[in-house]
Structure formats: C-alpha cells, structure tokens
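Workshop exercise sheet. Pairs work together: one partner reads the sequence aloud, the other fills in the structure field after running the prediction. Swap roles for the next sheet.
Pair: D.N. / O.F.
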Amino acid sequence: MVIADAGYRGETGTILTPITLAVDVDLRDAAGVHRARHETCNRRLKVWGCLKQKFRHDIPSHQDYFLAVAVIEQLRIEAGETLSEPDLQWLL
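Structure field:
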C-alpha cells in the first residue's frame, strides 16, 4: 500500500488517499504511525546534513556519502533503536 495526497487518482485498492483514510479509522491511525516513522527517518538524515545542506564535493561521491549515512542509520535500527526515539544528541 502507498499513502498519497488528495490530488492522486488511481488504484483505490492500492493507493490510500485522505478520502480513503477518512472512512477507515484503523487505516487512518496506521497511516499516522507510518508517516511519523517516515518523518523520523528524514529527521535523522537531516541531522547528518544529508537533506538540508548543499553537497560541496563531486557529484559521483554524493551517492556514496548518502548511502554511508543510510547504512549507519539502518545499523542503529537493527541494533535496537526504534524510530520513535527522539534522542539524536549522540551525533551532535
């Protein structure tokens, strides 16, 4: 399943829109949890500077740097940190 915005038109069985989520309370709650997790992932990447700073090195290196950060964050999750943990001070 994919969560989309209200402007999306398409496969109603696969794509969840705000209209679909308004009808089903359980789906709306689950979608809220997933959105919060996604925002936490983005925040973790922003702490590293991956999403908010201009990359000032050669373009081919960008993928390597971003992938390294993603792997570090994945390892933190696999080590037992949840995506709901707000404490990212270890990195600062």
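Discussion prompt: Residues 25-48 form the longest helix (24 residues). What would you look at next?
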